[in-house]
Design brief:
Elements: E1 7-11, E2 18-24, E3 38-40, E4 47-49, H1 55-61, E5 62-63, E6 66-68
Bound molecules: zinc ion.
C-alpha cells in the first residue's frame, strides 16, 4: 500500500509546531530514521533526539504524513 516519495513531516510533540524537517520513506521498515540527529524546537525549545527510530516506528506514530516527536 505504500507509495514512493512519501515524506513524513516532523512536528514537536509538545507544542505541535513543525521542526521543518521531513523524512522521505524508503519503504524499508527497519531503516533507521535520522539516527543521532537532534531536532530543536524553535518555539518551546524542546529537543528530540532520534536514537532508536525506524521507519516502522515512524509510520506507527505518524498521522496524515505528520509525526509528533
Ligand atoms: Zn515545541
Amino acid at each position: 500500500m505504500r507509495t514512493e516519495n512519501i515524506c513524513i513531516d516532523m512536528h514537536c510533540k509538545k507544542c505541535r509546531k513543525s521542526f521543518r524537517v521531513s523524512y522521505e520513506l524508503t519503504g524499508m521498515d527497519a531503516a533507521p530514521v535520522l539516527p543521532n540527529i537532534t531536532l530543536k524546537c524553535g518555539t518551546c525549545k524542546r529537543t528530540a533526539t532520534f536514537k532508536k527510530y525506524t521507519e516502522a516506528k515512524l509510520i506507527e506514530i505518524s498521522k496524515d504524513n505528520k509525526a509528533l516527536v
